[in-house]
């Protein structure tokens, strides 16, 4: 029993006194807020319009207008490490997740087995009277444990979530996803021909999970981890959504970056003296790596003016499809917020919306109709993709845009996802809103924060202290700090602000909240 029995047991029942406290389910304090954590996938810093980008995302702008935009939020440049930190409040190495879940190795920092003493926020809140739901991408279970014969203690239901609907791996088709419902596989409820898309399906399930409990116990708060499929490849979307961006990207990725930076400055996201990173900043592909080996061709950008008209046409369509994918996913996310508003739950819901890393360069310099070529070290000739240009985004594709767009959607920074030493990999958008508890701010909060700072607001704002024990397991100390305090990095003795933070592949020194290695004069 969690609490000692304080009643009285006598020989005669008439002389006995019951005490229900040790036996009742935990109950959250009165008026505890709901918590909705929204994780976007591979959305670069300069992608969405609420961060100066060209992609229209009215739902994300709605969240931004309700709360605070964080301009200096950082991740680990990879999916699993960021998500592990987001759920536990510990850094990736402490979680054994300093790599992606499929790349486990027999060492503590990269075992991909998150220690049970590193409690998930779902475990903490579940034991304090919350319903807990996970919807969408998981990517926190070792690759060898995502089968029906495997140990399921590291599946969502094994880490404090009462309900799960989504996929366990790092990516999935939007048309034919590998779905898991709670602890068993299920088929999608419809086909692409019948209008199926995973973004719509995930929103349906998010609403269903919340409604199922609220009709029984309206006062019980919930914690939901809504982990979107977008904008990880494959970039799948209905043609009409991609067509909305006709003409937006015709000038190319180099041409749109100055406009993105201008809007970022107008929003207060970046200082006025911020400059754009140059294309191929190390002089690649002709330059050699420090070890003398050739620069990896797959991590280079082809200048727009060196492309043929057909290549430009192909790359433009790749960007249109991607933008439509993000906008459609944002539209479906809006249905969840609409439901919360119509049911009277939105005002007392803490919303944390982030991306797990920078835009993805996994399409290589030419983009691809089949992303799996990249994972096998193969570039995709543009001639091959041009044969399928009208199929991009559809059920027959497994497409990914080229590195030029990753660079543009990470404006103003260099590089992209996987590059843990550069802002293009680790600088990400972050929005926090709580209409009943946080005053909306027209300007951005520039305090330095990392992916594990969203854990403390989820627990402290919901009146839940971080426990020493959970599920009879001693808990390690969370490394997070509540972002809701808008606290800047602590001052050094000489008065300058400086800190060292672990980005995933190693520590990175920062000054004035910005990585020192990227200061240019």
Helix/sheet category: alpha/beta
Kindly report how far apart the N and C termini lie.
63 Å
Main sheet attributes: strand count, strand direction, barrel closure: 10 strands, mixed
**N to C succession of SSEs:** EHEHHEEEEHEHHHEHHHHEEHEEEEE
Protein architecture, described:
The structure is a single chain. The protein has 521 residues and is of the alpha/beta class. It contains twelve helices and 15 strands. The chain has a ten-stranded mixed β-sheet. The protein has a three-stranded antiparallel β-sheet with strand order 13-14-15, with no helix packed on it. A two-stranded antiparallel ribbon has the order 11-12. Strand 14 and strand 15 form a beta hairpin. Helix 4 runs parallel beside helix 7 and helix 6 runs parallel beside helix 10. The longest helix has 34 residues. The radius of gyration is 23 Å and the shape is globular. The N and C termini lie far apart (63 Å).
Which helices and strands, and how do they pair?
Layout (H helix, E strand, L loop, with lengths): L33 E7 L17 H9 L1 E7 L4 H10 L32 H6 L4 E7 L25 E5 L11 E3 L2 E3 L11 H17 L7 E6 L11 H5 L9 H14 L42 H34 L6 E7 L16 H4 L6 H5 L16 H7 L13 H4 E7 L15 E2 L4 H6 L8 E2 L2 E2 L23 E5 L4 E5 L2 E2 L6
Parallel strand pairs: 1-7, 1-8, 2-10, 3-4, 3-7
Antiparallel strand pairs: 2-9, 4-5, 5-6, 8-9, 11-12, 13-14, 14-15
Helix pairs in contact: 4-7, 6-10
Characteristic key phrases:
10-stranded mixed sheet; alpha/beta; 23% helix; 3-stranded antiparallel sheet; Sulfatase; 521 residues
